[in-house]
Amino acid sequence: MHRSMPRPTWILVTLAALAACDSRPELRPEPAPLEAAEDAHLRVLARIAFLEDRRSDGGGELEILAASSEPEVQERALLALGRMPFPELTGGVSAALVRALSDKRTKARAIAAFGLGLRADPATAGNLLSALSDPSAEVRARAVEAASRFDNPGMREELLYASSDPSPLVRAEAALAPHRWSSDDANSALVDSALVGMASAAPAKLLRERWGIELDPELKTEPEDIEVVWRALFSLARRKAERGREVFYLWARAPESVNARIFAVRGIGALATSDPRGLEILRESIADSDARVALEAARGLGRFPNAASLDALKRATRASSSALRGAAASALGEFEDHRENARKLLEKPLVDTSTAVRAAATVATAKLMGDGGAAELELRSLDGDPRLRRAVAQSCRHLSQPLAFSILTRLTRDPVGSVSFEAALGLGAVLSAGGRERAHELLKNQDNGLRLGAVLALQESPNVSDLAPLLGAYREASGDLKGELEYEILTCAASIDDDRALELLFLGLASSKAYTRVVARALFEEHFPASTLPAASPLPERHGALPEVMGLRIAPLVEIRTTAGSLVFELAPEAAPLHVHNFLSLAARGAYDGLDFHRVVGDFVIQGGDHRGDGNGARSWRGEPLRAEFSREKFVLGSLGMPRNADPDSGGSQFFVTHRPTPHLDGRYTLFGQLKSGREVLAAIEVGDKILAVVPRGPRAKK
Q1: Radius of gyration of the CA atoms of the chain, in A
Q2: Mean pLDDT, the chain cut into blocks of 10 residues (703 residues total)
Q3: Residue 152: φ, ψ to 5°
Q4: What is the 3-state secondary structure (H, E, C) of 342-359?
Q5: What would the DSSP string read from start to end of 516-565?
Q6: What is the dihedral of CA 304, 429, 419, 664, to 10 degrees?
Q7: Where are the beta strands (DSSP E) in 18-161?
Q8: In the chain, where the domains are located
Q9: Residue 513 per-residue DSSP state
Q10: What's this model's pTM, rounded to 2 decimal places?
Q11: What is the CATH number of domain 1-150?
Q12: 289: left (phi over 0), alpha (psi -120 to 50) or beta
């Protein structure tokens, strides 16, 4: 056990300065043997952090440390190796992780398996399959998760055998694995059948009372079996598996697990159906005691408009949950065959006390009315609330192009970034009515958000006339969105058959941004396979300041005070030390004070921390993007995560909090905290609620 280190009042337990790793030590009294050993240990951890931050294995140094007899050093080194990018860093990194699969320590083997999954090096597929026979359930579970990330259909049948593993931990991972696979694979029917089997472990009482099915009365479903069930339902819903229909029906009304109900109802909504049983369940589920289940039911009814569903949606527009009222309003926008009745039901949401509900109703009404509602949209485009003006920009996709272009052009000049960015995106729907020319103008704008919106609009239908403006925007890209602008411009240009597109891609290969170079090379191979490419350049070394964050022996508690109430989180410095330091450093500066929650997706996430105000701000404490710190921790209700764009290493100031388990984010987004109190507040937050402050609540000692 290492002794506590001196630390600032609330941020971090510090290490010796990183610079000491590479410079001569200052003169000081000779330390006691125990103190000297601890200093050396912390310097090694700091060195690992230094190398990981630079995405470098130190010329083999990390591989050596991954075989250390000191558990903490070995574990940190293995996790750092797993986070090294593939294929930029290959042979030695993968080989070290493979060797660790045979380590005597269970945790080392589990971390190695997880790391191999992050890298998905095809050469290691066989090693992971061998790890499915490990004596430790934790290692087998991590091997299942890791192997499921490989783009290798031949591995999948092997992974299905894990559904019969004696450990529920392994079976749970086997139930999640298929959500990562294409439902168009040749063995898709086999996969879906296996998932149905995993989701069929229903309590005998439920089967008897609900469905008249008699089973052995001694047969009981244990809590760990329910954990497998909801994960199987999640995968079936993500795959939109028709074979899952009956188990969706079975679990949609089950009181045993709200997660099972969420994903069962979500699964019913995902199936294109006119089955009366499914529609009846969706209508009933709108009254579920958990608003997340009810919200999924409302969305499902919107996908299959039926006159008999209007009464259920009418009730939902009067629910206490604003998220459910908003979902019901959005669903009503899909009832074009019952336009007049749906429009009348939207009258109440259009004057709802919640601006988020009014915004949803604005878009839904535009879907139903088209140009017939243009005059009302014109008025709302002048509303004092930017959330409603943004909804108008979204609504323009449902107007004729001339009317839409007129409104969008004005809104691209809106002083609020979230509105002007949404309007720039909307130009993609009116490219033939002046939208293309307006997008070209925005590419010259000094606001990076507007330039990005214009590029994304042009991606909807790029043509040769776009190339010169795109080339100019690429050459002038700078500042906070430089990397994202670069690779989105390349993506837009690559589908245009013109030599200037090649010129842009060659510029991309020479970018200072590593991810831009990765995208440029991939686009070359896809669109110009006959072209000769230069050798891949090495990853650039990062030069930003590295905080002294390793060896932290506390789990800091923080309170996010909002206009809806307070959320208290325990942060996770072991899993994501840089992200914890970043969050606390920005909070100490007051960087979050007064910012909006700019994105809320019911039964998914709330998102805030955007300093730009258009959804694109991502400035870290050191001014450059954060590298990802993907870990084995799972996203559940109340998990605190880092948003990013397509570049994994693009974290910054923003954060999100999940409303429920979100397995599709596991290992793909950085998780750096967990909600400890404030569930009701989390459920109540909507777009426009503000962060008042992020304040310390004192450290909690790690157990």
Answers
A1: 27
A2: 34 31 41 64 88 90 96 96 83 94 98 97 95 98 97 89 93 97 92 93 58 56 82 98 94 92 97 85 96 97 92 97 98 96 98 98 98 96 97 98 98 98 98 98 96 98 98 93 96 93 93 92 88 67 57 83 98 93 95 97 97 91 92 98 95 98 98 98 97 86 43
A3: -145, 90
A4: HHHHCCCHHHCCCHHHHH
A5: HHHHHHHHHHHH-TTSPPPPPPPPPPP-S-----TT--EEEEEEEEETTE
A6: 50
A7: none
A8: 1-150, 554-701
A9: S
A10: 0.90
A11: 1.25.10.10
A12: alpha
Q: For the domain bounded by 554-701, which CATH number is listed? A: 2.40.100.10
| Tokens representing residue 685 in the block | 């937050």
Take residue 297 and report the two structure tokens written for it: 């039911």
The phi and psi torsions of 697 (rounded to 5 degrees) equal -120, 10
Instruction: Provide the pLDDT for residue 224.
Output: 74
Helices and strands (H and E) in the chain: how many: 32, 8
The reply to whether 554-701 shares the fold of 1-150 is no
Distance CA 86, CA 420 (A): 37
Cα separation, 386 vs 415, whole angstroms:
9
Q: Give CA–CA dist 582/626, Å, rounded.
A: 9
Nearest-angstrom CA–CA distance, 445 and 441: 7
φ, ψ at 691 (rounded to 5°): -85, 120
Q: How far apart are CA 374 and CA 353, in angstroms?
A: 23
Instruction: Supply 271's token pair.
Output: 């199936």
Q: Which two tokens stand for residue 319?
A: 């629910």
Residue 584: other Cβ atoms inside 10 A: 23
